[in-house]
UniProtKB/TrEMBL annotation:
This is PHP domain protein. It comes from Phascolarctobacterium succinatutens YIT 12067. Its EC number is 3.1.3.-. CDD domains: PHP_HisPPase. InterPro entries: PHP_dom, PHP_domain, Pol/His_phosphatase_N, Pol/histidinol_Pase-like. Residues 6-74 form the Polymerase/histidinol phosphatase N-terminal domain. Keywords: Hydrolase. It is an enzyme of class 3 (hydrolase). The keyword Hydrolase applies. Coiled coil: none annotated.
Amino acid sequence: MRTVLADLHVHTLLSPCAEVEMTPHHIVMRAAEYGIGAVAITDHNASANVQAALEAAQRYGVKVFPGMEVESSEEAHIVALFDTLEQLQRWQLLVDEHMNGMLNDVESFGAQYVVDAEDEFVREEQRLLHAPLSLTAAQIVQQVTALGGLTIAAHIDRPSYSILGQLGFIEPDFGFAAAEISAAGWRRKMQSKLQRLAGYLPFVTNSDAHNIYDFVQGPKNLLQVEELTIAELKLALAGKGMRAVLAGQFSDFCKE
């Protein structure tokens, strides 16, 4: 059994709200430096920087989960994670079909950059990424699961861009593998509404980093798994087979 520090919600500079320092290479380099053994790259409705992260990670011994932060038609954010780039690319094709077709306004939202594993500029994404798809949250969960991935309800303690904020509830059979509590929510030790979910939905906490400081210092998860795969992560979230996930602040797990 392995114990691995993991951050399952990290943005690169492809996300319009992320700093340009958030290149794939910089992220995995810092992960290795601070003992973060697994990282999920989860840009808004996009995956073009995941391959660069996978290539860069080979140099540093860091596991990269191919992922995406998807925005549903209800304007709820959902983290989708996969084992392989091929699965993610199949998911991206479906996402592309359900985007609104609007172009990005750089002055309003920020630039969206695609880079390679050496941090060299490749192109600027012209489509507006931070926008809802025409897929409902339920459809997103169903489709990601069908492709072999898992879904996490993102930052459910926030009043906006969350399942609880937009829908007001999460049914036990919705299909999420976990619910994510934001850094601020974790510090508050969760409101009573969130505590009621704990009976049927495991909690994780991630940095949701848009800059390097938040990535390094933000909350993390300690995974106890046989290997770093989606199947093992599902078992750990369910607390099966001696697997486990312990969520908390970065300072709880390691020193600077």
